[in-house]
Specification:
Length: 392
């Protein structure tokens, strides 16, 4: 579906309103004035401060994570987990991957390591799985990664620890991005599966940010734990299609989500907050029906950055390395329709797009390597894995 732009250019939202809409709580309203800002022009290849080097290629890659030895795990949407030895360039397929529901936006998703991976070799993967009567939903499983000396290996003792509820028809908006927080909890983005209203329905976990213990159990201090059931998993609600979650250096969780026509967002995720979708958005429905802006409903948490024209965000990470010291503390977002790498700068809890680098291809994923280099995965078949290093 073509993404379009219908509102003012890049907006910088100046306040975030954590509202517990489902419990009818309200908070004092901070300033919600949005200042218009023109998006930076995309930097051309000869103007970029980095060199992009092709390292390998993959078939519809979706996510990547570095192992302690510097090698790389890469998921491919069709249902493969690849292990790449960056020193030798050798690639091996990891067996034991769960069966995925491939099609549309569905398939194999994220892969991350347990915080104590060096001791327990536990990894987490997300994927779309089949249900009954032509329904599907995202699932998250944990397993032990057993690697052989030659780089091949398998996922052992795989166990599903979370599922989207309910499973629904369609092949879009799974989300299923994963992250571990400084609190040792597992965070999951659960998108609304292109069904709109479930993002506000606490009887299911669609359109929510989920917080779990590392074994999939529900922490007793979650904001809606007292409601029991699926609601107890929820940390925040009112989300559309969250394709990137990451913690900054101060332990704050940020999430970018693909909005409707002209409404991509970067949000600071706060406990129990309701981000308003589909009741409010800075974009409109694809069929042209308007959606009220966030500033019309101050009880909902407003985004820190909105994009129009959209960037179609995919992947999110905060840079902490020394290879690009000028970027320490910045966030980087991969752009799909914008074929770009977007850098976001921060001033406390406010954010703005600072730079945009034209990469010429859809960017699905961005990560920081062990040496501080930036690594990008392009989208689609024969997608390149790129290593970005400073120009001499």
């Amino acid at each position: 579906m073509t993404r379009s732009s219908k509102r003012a250019p890049l907006l910088l939202a100046m306040g975030l309103l954590p509202i517990l809409a489902t419990t009818a709580c309200s908070a004092a309203s901070p300033d919600t004035t949005a200042a218009a800002q023109t998006a930076p022009a995309a930097t051309s290849a000869d103007q970029r401060p980095f060199t992009a080097t092709e390292v390998s290629r993959f078939d519809q890659p979706w996510a990547m994570t570095f192992l302690p030895d510097g090698s790389l795990l890469v998921t491919e949407k069709r249902g493969k987990l690849q292990h790449l030895d960056l020193a030798s360039g050798q690639k091996h397929e990891i067996t034991g991957v769960p069966k995925v529901a491939y099609g549309g936006q569905g398939g194999f998703g994220d892969v991350i390591l347990h915080p104590d991976f060096a001791r327990n070799n536990v990894v987490y993967v997300s994927y779309a799985e089949e249900g009954t009567l032509d329904t599907r939903g995202a699932a998250v499983a944990r397993a032990t990664l057993a690697l052989n000396a030659d780089g091949s290996g398998a996922l052992k003792d795989l166990k599903v620890i979370w599922r989207q509820t309910p499973k629904v028809s369609g092949q879009g908006h799974y989300g299923h991005r994963l992250a571990f927080g400084p609190d040792g909890k597992l965070w999951i983005s659960s998108s609304e599966r292109q069904k709109f209203d479930p993002a506000q329905d606490m009887s299911g976990n669609l359109g929510k940010i989920i917080r779990l213990n590392d074994d999939g159990s529900v922490p007793a201090d979650n904001p809606f734990a007292s409601q029991g059931g699926v609601a107890a998993q929820v940390w925040s609600l009112g989300h559309r299609n969250v394709l990137g979650i990451a913690f900054d250096a101060n332990g704050k969780l940020w999430a970018q989500e693909m909005g409707p026509a002209g409404g991509d967002e970067l949000n600071l995720i706060q406990r129990g907050a309701n981000y308003g979708y589909p009741i409010v958005s800075n974009g409109d429905h694809y069929d042209g029906r308007p959606i009220p802006d966030h500033d019309t409903r101050p009880e909902f948490a407003a985004p820190k950055v909105t994009w129009n024209p959209v960037i179609s965000p995919a992947g999110l990470m905060f840079y902490s390395g020394s290879l690009f010291p000028q970027w320490k503390g910045s966030a980087f977002i991969g752009g799909l329709s914008s074929t770009s790498l977007v850098r976001v700068a921060f001033d406390g809890e406010n954010a703005r797009e600072a730079e945009r680098f034209n990469m010429g291809e859809r960017i699905r994923e961005v990560e920081q390597g062990p040496d501080g280099a930036l690594w990008l995965l392009e989208d689609g078949s024969k997608a390149r894995l790129l290593k970005l290093t400073p120009k001499a």
